[in-house]
Amino acid sequence: MSFTSGNAQSALDEAIKVVKRQKLCDTKSESCIDRLIELVRSSQIQLESNESLDADKVMATLRQQAQKLGTSKELASQTKELHLGITRLSKALDKCFDQQVDVCKAMRDCSFDTAALHKLREHNVEPALGWAVTHRAQLSNDGSPSSFEFKLHSLSFLHTLRHLGHGPALAYSRSHFGPFQHRHMGEIQRLMGCLLFSRRLAAGGMDGITVGAGPYADLLASSTLWEQAAQGFWQTACGLLGQASESPFTVTVAAGSAALPELLKLACVMERTCTLQDLQTCEQLPMELELGSEFAFHSIFACPVSREQSSAENPPHAAA
Fold this sequence. Notes:
Elements: H1 5-49, H2 55-69, H3 71-96, H4 103-108, H5 115-121, H6 126-134, H7 136-139, H8 147-164, H9 166-176, H10 181-193, H11 198-204, H12 217-220, H13 222-240, H14 248-273, H15 276-281
């Protein structure tokens, strides 16, 4: 992200001007409104003190006086000046930053090597595997090959099986699956089962195998596995940096959108059964909102009766 002190000073100067214009606009707007209120009150007093006056004539006079004040033109002029200042500020801010960069990523400082991610999406697993080997100590507690590294080898095995056939795929499994046999034996056995379909792959290609072709269809449908691997790499890399893999702002908006229908229903019910004061001062909703597992982060146990949250000083206990 490019950033220069000259552009920053220019943006700051424009921001100061906008603040001044906003204050001036606010002051003059209040003055215009006050003058209009005085005219209305004066007309109201005339009608109340003399019932014989023609109300239509009084209203016509009021409109003429309001037009002479020129409040509409003055308000429009002040608003136009404020909007012009905001436009200039926006342009000054655009010059400060490179708009082609991922702003959310830059703010979260996810500065890992994205070349491996791009190569993975191009069906090249080697850079991502190199990254996983380099970070073994961080990816597993004992420094052994991680589960993520196994997923990459699994993807590479399936890719080899599809494009090179039975023999090279079997050789690849013998060379790379050994360190994972204690933790991932069940998954390795399923991968070996895919070898039974090697002749079909050679004869008809991957397109000849449908989703219902057998118990290994989820592994042989590699078009989805590549994107899953890319997403797994992104999440793992962000985890090492202590950063969220998704923009916190995006997650917040999505969670709020998912909860909004239930919140609206709750608000309607509470307005009918409670006073407005109760609705505004309640510290806790009377019901839980189920947002789904994708919005569950660092869950904290809460007593279903007292609603009290557990902590290190107040751990949960099973009832006798």
